[in-house]
Amino acid sequence: MKQFLLLIFTVSIFSTISAQFPKKNFLIEDHTGAWCGWCVLGNQSLEDLHADYADRVIPIAVHNQDGMSLPIQQQLAKEHGITGYPSGVINRKTYTINGNSGYGIHPSSWTSIIDTNSMKQTAPVDISITSWKIDTIAKEIKITIKAEFFEDINRPLAFNCAIIEDGVTGTGKLYDQSNYVSNASGYEAHPYYYQPSSITNYSHINVLRGYGAGIAGIAGTLPETGVFFQDKYTYTFTIPLSTIKISNVSNCWVAGWIQETSNGYEILNAASAGKQTTPKSQYVSVDIKCMNPPSQILPGTVHKQTIKLTNKREFPVSVSVSINENESVITEDWKYTLNPSIVEIPAKSSANAELQTIAGAGIGAANYVVSALVIPKDNIRGLPTSTRTSVISKEQKIVLVKFDATDKNSVLSTYNDIKSNEVFKDRIAIVSLNDSNYSSFDFSGAEAFIIGESYSSRTSLIYGTKKLLPFFESIFKAGKPMLMWSPMNLWLVADNYPPVLSNSIKNVWNKTFGITGEEYPWQPLLWDMTNRKEIPFGLQGTGDSKITNGISFMVNEESNEHKSIWIDCIKVLDSSIAQPILHFNSDVLQEPLNIAAVKIQSSTGTRAIYQGFPTECAGSGASGLAIRQTLLSNYLYYLLNLSSLSDNALNPSNTKVYPNPANHTLTISSENNTNDSKWNIYSMDGILIGSGINKVQSSSLYDCSTLSNGSYYMIMDQKGIKSYIPFIVHR
Predict the structure, then answer these.
(1) Which of 204, 497, 628, 676 is a Cys-bridge partner for 168, taking CB atoms 3.0 to 4.6 Å apart?
(2) What is the pTM of this model?
(3) What is the DSSP letter of 243?
(4) Helices (H), 461-557
(5) In a domain, 282, yes or no
(6) Is residue 17 part of a domain?
(7) Does 7 reside within a domain?
(8) Residue from 520, 476, 478 nearest 610 by CA
C-alpha cells in the first residue's frame, strides 16, 4: 500500500513539474544585407512570423556588408556555415530541411520549423527581462535578465543579450534595399512584388546593433559545472552607448537568452522586451467575372470583353489584373491587351478592365485565365482569384481540346507535334472546353477532335465535367471523328473503383465505342515504390514482330518531362466496332492487360481512336519526337479517311528493313507502297544520317558500313503517312 501511495505521489509531482515547463521561444538571426535582392524574403518573413506569434518569435536581422553591418556577423556566419543570403539561424540549432542538415535555413522553410505545433514546445529554462533602459545621460544601456531552470543541466551555460533597432534609414547603396522580387514571376502575392528593384528610403527593421557578450555569452555568469532544477539566476548587462551605433533610441528594443558556450552556441530559450506589436496580416481577395460569353470571331478582327472586379470589403483596394501566361494558351499570331493593369476599387464597389483580343490570320484561339490580385499594402495581403474565357476563330478544323486541369506543356506538346506535319499545321487550334462554355461555339465545320487527358487532368470526362462526355458522344454520332486518350477513364468504367459510374456514362464507352477497361484492383501499376519513381514501359504494334523488333518505343523515360503512373488497359467488347492497334510490352502489363490503343469505326463509318496513355509521355528526345509525330500523323490520316490504318500504328506502310541488326548494307523494302516514298535515317539524338526515295513497290539499299554500332531509326513518308522503324547496327 505504501509503495502504491509513493507511486501516486511521484507521478503527481512529475506531472505538476511537467505542466510548469515554460514555453519555448524562437530567436531567428537572419543573415541579410541591403545589397541582397532576395533578402526581402527574409525581411517579410520576420514580420509575418512576429505578427502571427508575437513575442514567441524574436526577429533579429544580422546585416552583412552594408551600412548596418557589424564585424561580428562574419564570425557568426563562419560559426554557422552561412554561405548564402538570406539565411536564418533559429535558436542556433541545426535542422534538416529536404534532406539537408545545417544551421542556415532559407526563409521559405522557416514556417516548417515555426508553426502552431512548435508553439506547444517547452524549454528547460524560463527567461524574462525584468528591466531595461537606455540612459542617454549616463550613456549606457542596462538590461537585467532572469533565468529559472526546470531541469538539471550539467554543462556550461551563459547569459547573453542583444540590442535591436527598428526604422533604420539612410541614403545610398549601403541603405537602399535591393529587391529581386520586384515583378518576379511566381511572387505576385508577395508584398515586395510591387516595390521597385531598388527601394530608396527603405525602413530597415529588426536591425542588430550589438550583442551584450559576443557570440559565446558572458563567462562566469552561471556555474561552470552546470545548473539544477529550480535554480534561479539574474544578471544585469551594462553596455556603453559608445560601443554601439543607434539612430533613434526610441525605436530600440532588446532580447535576452541563456545559451551554450561552445559548439554552435545553441540558445535554450530567449525573451524580448520593448518590441512593438506587428499587425496581423489581413488576407483580401476580389471577385472576378467575365461579363461576355465566349465568342467566335473572323480573322484579323478585334473582340472586346469586360472583366468585372468586385470589392466586398469596407475599405478600398488596388487590384493587379493580368493574363496568367503559365495557364493561358493563345495561338502564336493572336494578340491581346488588358487595360488597365491596376484597377482602383472603392469600398464595397466594382470596377472594370477591358480585355481586347486581336485575331490572327487563320484558324486559332485565345484561351485566357484572367487573374486578379489585391496589391499588398501595410498588413493587407492579396489572395489570387481568376476567371476563364475563350475567343476562337469561326473556322475550326482540327480541335485540340484542353481541359481546365490539363497542364499547358502537355497540350502544347501535342499541338507542336501535329504542327510539324505540313498537311495539318494550319488546321489545328487548341480550344479550352468545360461545362460552362462548350455550347457557346459552333463546331459544325470541324473535321476532327483530339480529346486528350494528361496525367494531371485524368478523369476529366468522368468526374471533372458532367456535360462534355455527352457532348462528345453526340458529335461523334453526328459524324465527327475523334482521337481520345486517358490514363484512367476505362479503369473507372470497368467498376474497379467506387463510386460505380452511371449506366449513361458506361454506355458511351461500352456501346458507342465498343470498349471498356480490364478489371484489376486499385494500384498505380507503373510506380516503383522502392525507388519512388515512374516505371518505364514499352509499346509495340500488332503487326509482324520482325518489323517492329519487339519494343517499338518507351513511355515514362526519365528524360521525358511528361510521365504517368496510371494507364488504361483496354478491353474490346465489340470487335465489329473496335480493333487493337497498339499493345503494351511490359512485365506488369501482360495479357489481358496489354491492349494500349484501339481504332474505332461506327456503323455509319465515323472513325475514332482510343489510347490508354497520354501521348506526350511517349519516347524522349529526338527519337521520341519522331515517334509521337508518326503516331499522331497516322491517327489523323485514319480519322480523316485519308488512309486506312493497318494493325501496326507505327508502321502502317508495312516497310521492312533487314537484316536487323544490320552489318554493312541495309535493305529498305516498301513493296506494298502505291506511291513513291521518301525515307530519312536518324541517330537516336535526331541527327540526320542519310535519306533516299523508294519508287512504287520497290526496295533500296543503304550503305551503313560507316555507321557506328548502336541504335538508329528510319522515318518513311508516303504522301504524309509516316512509318517509324527502329534498327540496330552491329558488327
Answers:
(1) 204
(2) 0.69
(3) G
(4) 468-477, 489-493, 503-507, 545-548
(5) no
(6) no
(7) no
(8) 476
